[in-house]
Amino acid sequence: MFKKPPQVKPAANIKSSDRRKLLSAVCKTYNLPIDEIAKEGLDNLVPPISKKASFTSPVDKKLSGTIYFDSNEIPTWFQTRDSQLYPSLFTCWKCPYVLPLIKTHEPVIGILGKGADLMLPGTIPPFDERAVKHAVVGIVSKEKPNVIMAVGVCRLNLTQFDYVVGRSGMAVEIIHHFEDELMKLNKEIDVEIPEEVNAAIPKIAKEDDEVKTEEGKLEEADEDVKKEGQPKKEDPTKDSTSEHTPVAVSGETKTEIDDVAEELAQLTTEEVDNFFIRALLQTIKLETIELPINSSTFMSSYIYKNLPILDSTYANIKKTSWKKTSKFLKAMVKSSYLEVKGKDEDLSVIKLMARNNPTIENFVPHKVNKVKKPTSSGSNGSDGNTSSSSMMKITTLYKPTSKSRMFFNKLNVEFDHLYTMAELRTMFNDYVKLANLASPTNPKHIVIDEILSKPTNKLVDSESPRDQIFTTFLSNFTPHYSITSNQHSYLSKGTPPKIHIVTEMKIGRKVITRVGNYDKFFIKQGAFAEELRKLCSGSTTIVDDEQVQVQGPHGKTIIQLLKEKGVPLGCIEFEDKVKKKKRK
User: Is the pTM of this model over 0.70?
Assistant: First the structure.
């Protein structure tokens, strides 16, 4: 149903009454006990904030219907004008109990992902008693028996089969599968395939359980009351020899900043300011920094890294009284912690307080969140492959054209296939040996025969350098590329794409950085914008529905982030228009 991108109109929020009707229709269609399901389970079935949009198939204009979304524009349910409601895979991963499950083999899941239907020999008995003809079912692999990877309609009464070997027929007609165009409508949040899901229906707790829950809440409340008497944090910039200063070692009276961060449910602006100052002091004491350093890089690589353990919500410069990185750094200049140069947002840190200063010497480091670094592997450029991380691999492939058909026939290899450059070079050298085309006077030259004449556009019996002939030979192939990550794969015609990063100055001397063409690398627009907002401590905007714009010069920071996501450096283009103007 979604083999090609559907034409979807803008989604609009549905009323609470319509949401209740939708929830009732879902439970009635799939025989779910709505009165017994817990509120969390009902919210997973139909999110509290749901949107609705109509769609039309680009293949068949008569095929139209409705798609429901959650608040993050993730499809939850869909139906055509003549069909019942079908759950999306996103809903199936939250509520696998909605559909009867049909097991198959792991390789078959990959075939279904290309738009094929599930045939009877590919299924694994025994079957769910609900898997009768016309029933909506979920397809799972035997390795992940609860993770639905495709949704379809039974075309056979599967309950009548105890074994499937030697039988034929279509068992399930697939209407929605992983990586189809319905899944790709999710452009905001990066949802990963779960390794395991809970197949049990979340039921409403019994009265006994509710009583125990209330008792547990009362016990927690008593613990909170006991904690109220603990001392508060002091300003870390005060003299470290003071007995009330938390950053100095003062025996049993010292208050651990880590415990305070964990105990406080909500932090005041003053407390968040305190955390950022501590992060700066810890950076000066423990980190070795090559100066000068760009302000955005200094913040993302050192300050945020050295923040005490606290809720990620507060790990943002906007939660402080300074609101902006530039104001924070200028305030630290007044406190003599560092020195900066530059104007407005384009600042660089040029000097830090000496480590032998009493403030730094007496500072007691605190615990920080540990960041897992992605493993990386070397690149393999001999065959056109580029891999800067185990997370993603870019491969350049070549498809033969009609001019080279006889070449493949002579070698007795498949013509209609995609080959890497290394594979084609090997076949080219094999053919030169097979046809004895090496020049007697110069082995680096070959003599063109009738087979190589067409794909190289050279005259028969003419002599040319081997490398030059191979380059011409390769130019007659149609280039393709594939992008593969741990969970996604993408194959397309043409040369590998590149992510474009541009830093430029807008009217009013406002510096911004734009990032575009990232969607080919499985980067979700909404999640990417939010990540840049936190990392660069600047507001982000979606431009022309395809570019993310962030305030400030953050080219190097964004490149580092893309590298951590597995994007090869060769697939990133960065242009700094601000520096070009300065040179003039």
Answer: no
